[in-house]
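Working notes for the structural subgroup meeting. M.R. asked for a predicted model of this chain before we commit to crystallization trials. I am recording the input and output together here so anyone reviewing the notebook later can reproduce the run.

Input as submitted:
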Amino acid sequence: MARTRTRIRTAGALASATALLAVTGCGAADMTKQASPYANAQGSKTVTLSVQSWVGAQANVAVATYLLEHELGYRVDTVQVDEVPAWDALSQGRVDAILEDWGHPEQEQRYVKDKKTITPGGGLGVTGHIGWFVPTYYAKQHPDVTDWRNLNKYADQFRTPESGGKGQLMDGSPSYVTNDKALVSNLKLDYQVVFAGSEAAQITQMKQFAKEKKPFLTYWYTPQWLFQRVPMTEVELPEYKEGCDADPKKVACAYPHTPLQKYLNADFAKKGGGAATLLKNFHWTTEAQNEVALMIAEQKLSPEKAAEKWVKANGPTWKKWLPKQEGAS
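Returned structure, recorded in token form:
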């Protein structure tokens, strides 16, 4: 998740993509070479969306998929692609849209400003933030742990067999672009970054720690449904200032708050008809995304069923996204 923290077929294929997600999690292999047969298909009502492996991104895609299929009659396909390769695929027309981007300035410069093969699709309506968190039950016992300057004091309590004698800072997938190793080094913290392997694996570990009321320090992000199950308190890192993270090796500041953005293939944005209009108009709240994500991740509904449930309860929101000439309702 370059959080510096993204699938649409027919129903059967969506289930298959979901199964893949469950197996691979955030560390999924790049699938950009498996170009969808529907992507950038001229003259046909088809759409291909890139879906990242965290459940919030899956929630976006599930709702967009449902509306494209059931309201506008599109055939939709999804491809799981890691964050940076997704930009390449989008530029080449192998996917039509990314619905949740956490900020990739280099790719934006190359493809949006220089090559003009990608166009902004507008804000998602959700603001993302990465940080370091401890469980709230531990923060209540040790209030000063929420100041990064006191973390070394507690390093031995966060030690695990995987952290090599240091405190463990738990991260998710190695494919996420994070500043954590630089932060640990530059802030002179007695910690080791340990990757859980995926968002799903990280969640499993955090839930187990919480069940046993054990301390843990983790890289995490909002919006995320898990906060409703495992309350966590953010550790205050040195204040973020514009440009403080410009050099990845010298980062010694907090992560920014990032309004999440959508991006469309430039040709699709011009010629994608009602689908392009809907995706540009797609704009919802953190609470809405968390609601759908919770149904998928915790209640174990399929993405399609979760999307259907949300769509049926929120007509006034999504009807505004539909192109006037194609909306069925």
